[in-house]
Amino acid sequence: MASSDDLSGRLLAGERAALARLISWAENSDRRFPAALSSVYGRVGRAWRTGITGPPGAGKSTLVNELASTLRERDRTVGILAVDPSSPFTGGALLGDRIRMEDRTLDPGVFIRSMASRGSHGGIARATVDACDVMDAFGFDEILVETVGVGQAEYDVISAADHVVVVVCPGAGDGIQAMKAGLLEVADIIVVNKSDVPGAERLAMDLEEAVHLRTAGPRHVAAWVPPVVQCSAAKAEGMEALLDAVARHREYLQGGELEATRARKRAEQVQRVVSERLSEALWGELGYGALVKSFLDAGSTPYDVASDVLSRVLAGVPVAASGDRAGETGASAS
Amino acid sequence: MGERRIRVLVGKPGLDGHDRGAKTVASVLRDHGMEIVYTGLHKTPEAIAEIAVQEDVDVVGLSILSGAHMELFPRVREALGARGMEHVLLVGGGIIPKDDIAALEAAGFSKLFGPGTNTDDIANYIKAEMQKRWTKEGADA
Amino acid sequence: MSRNNDAGSVSVVDPRAIWEQAFRKAKLRDVDFSTLSGDELQPVYGPDDVELDEHADLALPGVFPYTRGIHPSMYRGRLWTMRQFAGFGAAHETNQRFKFLLEHGQTGLSTAFDFPTLMGRDADDPLCKGEVGQVGVAISSLKDMESLMQGIPMDQVSTSMTINGPAPIVLAFYIACAEKQGVDPKVIRGTVQNDILKEYQAQHAWLVAPEPALRMITDVMAYCTEHVPNFNTISISGYHIREAGSTAAQELAFTLANGMEYVRRGVAAGLDVDQFAPRLSFFFDSHLDFFEEIAKFRAARRIWARKMKNDFGAKDPRSWMCRFHTQTAGVSLTAQQPENNIVRTAFEALAAVLGGTQSLHTNSMDETLSLPTEKAVKIALRTQQIIAEEVEVANVADPLGGSWFVESQTNRLEAEAERYFEEIEQRGGVVPSIQAGYFQSEIHRSAVRYQRAVERAQKRVVGVNCFVEDEAGPEIEIHRIDPASERHTVDSLRELRETRDAGQVQRELDAVRAACKDGGNLLERFVAAAHAYCTLGEIAQVLREEFGEFKEPKIL
Asked: Which chains touch B (3 or more CB pairs under 8 A)?
C-alpha cells in the first residue's frame, strides 16, 4: 500500500496516476493526504487558477474545452477540475462534464478530473482546493475549475480561484436571472456565451450596465471593473478576447492584491479545515451528539444547549472520560 | 466529510452508438451510491484507459453491441495495463456469446454481463467485489 | 340472468353504475394495468370515453386524414412488402444472402451496413479494426457496391439502405452502380434512410454537425427530385428512438417533429412541398403493446396528414400520406428462452399489419445473441407469410376502426404528440433541442423507468422475471462473422487504392470540398466522386474537415 512519500515522489516525477491518486486521497479525507501535501507544498503557487461558473446550459464545459485548446496553442499546460452534484439521497453522482472535453483526453499537456460535490453546496467539492494544490504542485501552468452550475452564485469558487469567470447565455438563464442569483457579485469576468444566438448583444449590454451600476456607486472603489466578453464556445470564437480579459485581471492582481488575496484564501482554507475537523471530532469521537440529545430531552432550547456545548469545548471539558483526543485532531492544519 | 466512494468508468469503445444499456447502468449505479464517469461514445481503447487514469476509477465497465468485443475488450485491457491500471475491476456487457464470455473472463475480465441482466445484480456485484478489495487493502495497510 | 329478474330497475339505473358497482367488488390480479409505455388504462371502454367523428377523424381508408389507412383497398390491392433487413461481412457475402431471400419470396431488399460504413470510415481505417462486416455489410467504395448488387437487376428490385450520416455518399455509390449496370437512375426504386435528426437523438451514427447535415439532406431531395425520382430520399425513423428506450408517444412525437423539420428545410431550400413530400416515408417500431402500437400507427397517419395539409399547405394528397415501414421491436426479444421471440415477433407483426403498414421486417429469434442465422431469418419471414396468407386479417381495412378503446388510445397519442410539439417549439425547435440534449434525456429517462419496472416485475417478461427456467436452455446456433471477411474487404480496398486514377480522385475530392464551401449540390459531386472510385472515408473526411463534427451533449 502506497505511503504518502511514495506518492508525492511520483507526483513530483510527473506521474499522472500519482496526481490522480492524490486527488482521490483529498476527496476521501485519506489520513495520508496532509503529509503528502506538505511534502509537495513547496511547489504550490505557480499555477494560475480560473473558476468557471454559471447557470445550467450556459455552455461551461464547452467553454472550458475551448479555453484549454486555446491555452494549449499558447503552449500552456492545463489541469481541469469539473465538479458535478452528488445525489443528496444516495451520495452517487453522474460525472458527465468531460464528455464535452474529450478532444483533450490524450493530450499529455492536459489532465481532466471530474469531482462529485459530495455534500458541499458552494459549487465546488470540499476537496477542490486541495485538488488545485496538487495539480499546481504537479506543474500545470493553468488550472480551470468548472463549478456544479445550478444557477445560483456558487461563492466557494472564489476561494479556489484567482479569477472567477461567470458564463451566461441568452435565453434560458438570461441577464436578470443572473443578477437575481447573485452571479455578478462573484464575477471578475463575465462571458456572454452563444453570441450568435439572438439576444446576446442585448444581454451583454444589460450586463455591462449592471456592472457599471454596481461598481460606480459612492461606496465602491472600482479598482477592477468586470469586463463583459462575448464568445461562442461551440464555434471556438471569442477565446482570444476572453484570455485577454483574464490576462488584464492577472496584471491587475499582480499590481498589488495577488499575494494578499492568495494568503487570505489560504487562511480561509485553514478555517475550513479546522471547522471540519472540529465538527467531525465533536460529533464523532468526542461524543457530543449524545450529550446534546440528553439536554434536549431534558427540555432545554437548542440555543441553551449550543451555549453549553461551546463553553464546555472552550474550557476543554471532555464529555466522556475516554474521549479527550482533541489535541490530535486540531493541530495539523497550520 | 470525505468518505470513500466507488468510482466507475462507464465506457463505450468502438464505433457503435447504442448507449441505452450503458446509460441505464450508469444511472442505476449512481442510485447505488457510486460516482460514475461516462466517457461518451466512440472512444478508442487508449482514450478509455487514459480517462481511467485521470479519474482514478476503481472499476471500468465497458459496453459493446457491435460484435467487436473480442477485438476491443482485450485492447482496453492492454491499454489499462500499459498505464499501470491493471488493478481496476474490469467488467463488460453487451451482445456477447457464451464462448466469448468464457474467453474474456479467462483474459482478465472479472465478469461479463449478457443481455437481460438485472442492473441491480451488476451494482451488487461491483459493491461486493470492491468491499472485498477494500477490506484486503485495510488489512494490508 | 339479471335481465329477467330485474327488468324494471335496469331501465332506471345507469348501466355504467351497475358495472361500476360490480367492478369495485371484483378481486383484481396484483399486476400493473398500464400500457407498455406506462399510461394508465381503464378496465373497459365505451361510447362515453371517446367521440367517433366519421368525417373529421375517421374517414374511410384512402381518404383524408387517413387514420384508417392510405389506400382505399388496403391489402386487398397489394400486400405489404416483406422486407427483411440483411447485411454482414464482405459485400459478396451479403450479395449471397440477398439472393437467398429473393429466392424465398422476399419482395424487396433491405441493407444493413457495418459500423465503419455507418460512421463514414473506410474498412482499413485503424479506428475500425474488428468492426468491419460485423453488424452489417462493409461498403467502402463503389467497388464494394458493385459486388453487393452483382447479378441483381437494379431496374427491378427495390432496395432499402439503412444509413444516415454518410447516406448521401452511399446513395451516390448506388446511383453510380446502377449507371454501371446500364440502368437509368430514373427507374431505380428504393429508400435511403438518410434521417440524421434521429441519429443525434437516439442512434448516434452521425458524421457532421446538424446544420450541414441538414443541408446535405436538402441537396439529396433536390437532386433526386430531378434525377432519381423513384427513390424515397428519406425514411423518417422512430424505430431507433423507440429502441433507445422511448415511450410510444415519444416515438410518435419525435419522429413526426423530425419529419416536419425536414419539410421546413426543404421548403426553405426553395423546393415546392408537393415536389418532395410524396417521397418522404416513415419507419416505426412495432412493440409488444398490441393496441397501443396499432393506435400509434393510426395516430401517425392522422397527425401527418393534418400537418402537411393545414400547416404546410401541401395540395397533393400523396404529400399528406404517412407511408411507413415497420420493424418488430428488437428490444422486446430476450436472450432467455429465445424461441419465445418467434411468438413475440408474430404479435408485433400482427399489430403492424392491423395498423396498416406498407412494409415489414420481422426480427429473428436469435438477434439478442448474434446476427441471425438463415434458419432464424426464414422463420421470421414465414411469420409474415402466415399473417398474410392464413389468418385472414388482410381482407378488411382497419378492422379495429371504431373500437372505443383503440380510438381513445389513438386520440390520446395524438394529444400527447401535440404536447411534445409545443415543448419542442418552446425550446427553439428540433436542432436546438438536440444540442441541449432534450430528446436524449427524455429517451434516457423512459428507458431507465422501463428497465426498473421490469426489474421490479411491475412489467412482466416471460423467461426474465416470470416463468424463468434454469440457465442452460436449448443451444442456439450462433452466426459468427468470419475474420476473413474483414481481411477480404481491407485487401480489396488496398488494391483499389493502387489501381485507380489518383489524379482524378484528387480532382473529385477537391470538387466536393469546393461544393461544401460554395453551396453546390453535394449529391451531384458525390456521384461523380463515386465514379472516380473515391472512397467513403475520403469523401467523409472532406466533410468532417469542412463542416465540423458533432459533439455529444451531456445528458447524464
From this structure: A, C
DSSP letters for C206-255: --S-HHHHHHHHHHHHHHHHHH-TTEE-EEEE-HHHHHTT--HHHHHHHH
| ipTM here | 0.95
Cis ω for the linkage preceding A34 (within 30 of 0)? no
Q: A115 in helix, strand or coil?
A: strand
CATH superfamily name and code, A44-257: P-loop containing nucleotide triphosphate hydrolases (3.40.50.300)
CB of A199 within 8 Å of a chain C CB? The answer is: no
Residue C46, all three cell numbers: 365505451
- C92 by DSSP, 3-state: which? helix
Beta strand pairing call for A228-230 and B35-38: unpaired
Cell 397517419 belongs to residue: C301
Structural domain for C173, as ranges: 48-455
Q: What is the pLDDT of residue C3?
A: 47
- Selecting from C435, C436, C552 the residue whose C-beta is nearest the C-beta of A99 gives C552
Side chain identity, residue B29: L
What would the pLDDT profile of C389-428 be if each residue is shown by its tens digit? 999 999 999 999 999 999 999 999 999 999 999 999 999 9
pLDDT, tens only, A178-236 = 666 677 888 999 999 988 888 899 889 988 888 888 777 655 556 889 999 999 988 88
Query: Does B68 touch chain C if contact means CB atoms closer than 8 Å?
Result: yes
* Range C61-64 contact pairs with CB under 8 angstroms and sequence separation of 24 or more: C61/C356, C61/C397, C61/C398, C64/C305, C64/C309, C64/C317, C64/C320
DSSP string over C313-373 = ---SHHHH---EEEEE-GGG--SSSTTHHHHHHHHHHHHHHHTT-SEEE---TTTTTSBPP
Q: Which residues contact B101 (CB under 8 A, 6 or more apart)?
A: B112, B114
Assess if residue C419 is contained within a domain.
yes
Q: Do B23 and C334 touch (CB under 8 A)?
A: no
Q: Are C250 and C442 in contact (CB under 8 A)?
A: yes
Which of the listed CATH numbers 3.40.50.280, 3.40.50.2300, 3.20.20.140, 2.70.40.10 matches domain B7-134?
3.40.50.280
pLDDT at B141 over 80: no
Give residue ranges of C with CB < 8 Å to any B CB: 115-116, 118-119, 121, 127-131, 134-135, 199, 203-205, 243-245, 331, 334-336, 368-371, 444, 447-448, 451-452, 455, 464, 478, 480-481, 552, 555-556
d(CA A82, CA A99): 11
Find the helix packing angle between C522-531 and C502-518, rounded to 10°.
180
Contacts of B36 in chain A (CB under 8 A): 92-95
For chain B, which residues make up each domain, given as ranges? 7-134
Interatomic CA distance for residues B18 and C203, integer angstroms: 6
Q: Enumerate chain A positions whose Cβ falls within 8 A of a Cβ in B.
A: 1, 16-17, 20-21, 23-24, 26-30, 86-87, 90-96, 98-99, 102, 105-106, 111-114, 116, 118, 126-127, 276, 280
Strand partners, C371: C479
Question: Contact at 8 Å (CB) between C319 and C308?
Answer: yes
Longest dimension (CA), chain C: 96
* Residue C235 forms part of a structural domain: yes
User: Is some CB atom of chain C closer than 8 A to the CB atom of B101?
Assistant: no
At B87, the amino acid letter reads H
Delimiting residues of CATH 3.40.50.300 domain(s) in chain A: 44-257
Q: Is residue C554 part of a domain?
A: no
B55–A20 C-beta distance less than 8 A: yes
Tens digits of residue pLDDT in C13-45: 788 889 999 999 999 998 889 999 999 999 999
Q: What is the pLDDT of residues C353-383, one digit of tens each?
A: 999 999 999 999 988 877 788 899 899 999 9
Residue in C with minimal Cα distance to B119:
C455
